[in-house]
Amino acid sequence: MSDIFKTLEGHLRASTMRHGVIASNIANVDTPGYKARDVKFNESLSEATIELRNTSPGHMSPAGVAAGGGVDSDQRSPWGDQNNVELDVEVAKMTENAIFFQAATTILSKNIQMYKQALKRT
Fold first, then answer.
1. Are 12 and 41 within 8 A, CB to CB?
2. CA distance 99 to 80
3. What is this structure's pTM?
4. Which residue in 35, 41, 49, 111 has a CA-CA distance of 20 to 30 Å to 70?
5. Domains of the chain by residue range
6. Quick check: 22 and 61 in contact, CB under 8 A?
7. Chain segment 61-90, per-residue pLDDT in tens
8. Under a CB-based contact definition with an 8 Å cutoff, are residues 22 and 38 in contact?
9. Ramachandran class of 36: left when φ > 0, alpha when ψ lies in -120 to 50, beta otherwise
C-alpha cells in the first residue's frame, strides 16, 4: 500500500484533535480565567507527512520541516475576567479545520476508489 494512507491518517488525526480543542474553547467562552488553546497544527502535519526527498534538481528542499506538535495555549490578550476566548476567532478556526478535514477525506476516498479500480482490472 501507499504511504498516502498513513499520511492522510495523520492529517485526519491532527484535524480531529484540533476540532476537540477548538470545541473546548467554544464551550469555555464564558469561563473566567480560561485560556484558549490550539493545536500546533503545522507541526502535527509535519509529523504525519511522508518523508520528503529531492528527486530532481528543480524540486524545493525539504529542509526546515518542523517536528513536534501538540496543544499550546493561545497568547491572545485576556478580557477583564482573564478569559481570552474570542467566539468569532474560534468559529473561524473550526470552519477552516472542517474544510481541511473534508479535503483529506475526499483525497482518501479517491485513493480508495483508485485501488478498487486497479483491483477490478487485474
1. no
2. 33
3. 0.69
4. 111
5. 4-52+62-120
6. no
7. 544 333 335 676 766 776 678 888 999 999
8. yes
9. beta
